[in-house]
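sry for the spam today, last one i promise. struct tokens for design, 307 residues
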């Protein structure tokens, strides 16, 4: 009885029914406006692009971070990374110019430079981009390493090699909206089964080079010693020659002085006397103080004055 009475009261009050209807319409309209506004809003983060598509075609690219708008229920927004990305390449075997196998482990620093091309040719998929990067970088890596021998690769693997690989890659990925910033090698080494043998061969080669340098140094040192000995010999020979000349000149001067000193008869007689005394003194040896002379000896003539 009470429910029936309440229904009669509502039906009998048209003002209350109109209010309820207006409230419902207002709520529905607010929901529609909110959903429409929400659907038209695009929030772009600092490290991403926002691609606005209309019926599948890219009609706009938002690059600045912040809030923007699109046509609701018609346009759609999809994000792409707008930052440097790292792709770790799988390990691969490469062959050097001297036909040695090496294992390359590298990674790539890259970013999306043209989001429209990236979406058109790679469907905006990072997996497809990584596949394309892997193929291009491996081709560049193989091309550079195939023109270098193993020892050069080992010496340059921490710097110049990565630069050569990046330079050889060039702009080959630009058509896909991709820019490669750098290719870095984490390791570039020989397979474990022949690594020790290669190291031993390299040590042997370096020892041979060192021995060659040592032999060249010894040869140059011997040449220097020979030249020095020859110069010393020439200098000594010249010095001896000069000494002999000086000695001869000195003796000539000595003889000239003696000749001048004993040039008269008195001095000559005294000189003969002194020489006779020296001769007599020289004949008395071993304590012998007796001098026996023949009367016809010239020495007797000196002592006795020719008597």
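last one done:
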């Amino acid at each position: 009885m009470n429910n029936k009475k309440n229904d009669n009261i509502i039906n009998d009050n048209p003002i209350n029914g109109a209010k309820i209807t207006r409230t419902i319409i207002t709520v529905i309209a607010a929901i529609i406006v909110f959903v429409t506004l929400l659907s038209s809003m695009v929030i772009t983060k600092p490290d991403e692009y926002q691609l606005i598509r209309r019926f599948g075609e890219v009609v706009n690219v938002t690059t600045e971070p912040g809030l923007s708008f699109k046509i609701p229920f018609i346009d759609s927004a999809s994000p792409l990374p707008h930052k440097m990305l790292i792709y770790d390449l799988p390990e691969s075997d490469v062959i050097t110019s001297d036909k040695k196998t090496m294992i390359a482990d590298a990674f790539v620093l890259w970013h999306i430079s043209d989001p429209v091309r990236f979406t058109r040719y790679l469907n905006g998929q990072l997996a497809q981009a990584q596949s394309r990067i892997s193929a291009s970088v491996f081709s560049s890596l193989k091309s550079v390493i195939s023109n270098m021998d193993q020892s050069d690769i080992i010496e340059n693997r921490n710097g110049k090699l990565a630069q050569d690989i990046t330079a050889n890659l060039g702009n080959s990925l630009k058509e896909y909206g991709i820019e490669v910033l750098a290719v870095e090698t984490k390791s570039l080494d020989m397979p474990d089964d022949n690594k020790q043998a290669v190291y031993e061969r390299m040590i042997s080669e370096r020892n041979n080079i060192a021995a060659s340098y040592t032999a060249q140094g010894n040869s140059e040192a011997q040449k220097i010693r020979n030249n020095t000995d020859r110069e010393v010999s020439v200098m000594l020979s010249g010095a001896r020659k000069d000494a002999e000349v000086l000695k001869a000149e000195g003796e000539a001067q000595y003889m000239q002085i003696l000749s001048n000193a004993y040039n008269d008869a008195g001095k000559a007689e005294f000189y003969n006397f002194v020489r006779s005394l020296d001769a007599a003194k020289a004949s008395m040896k071993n304590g012998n103080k007796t001098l026996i002379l023949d009367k016809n000896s010239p020495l007797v003539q000196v002592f006795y004055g020719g008597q």
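The longest helix spans residues 192-261. ok im logging off now
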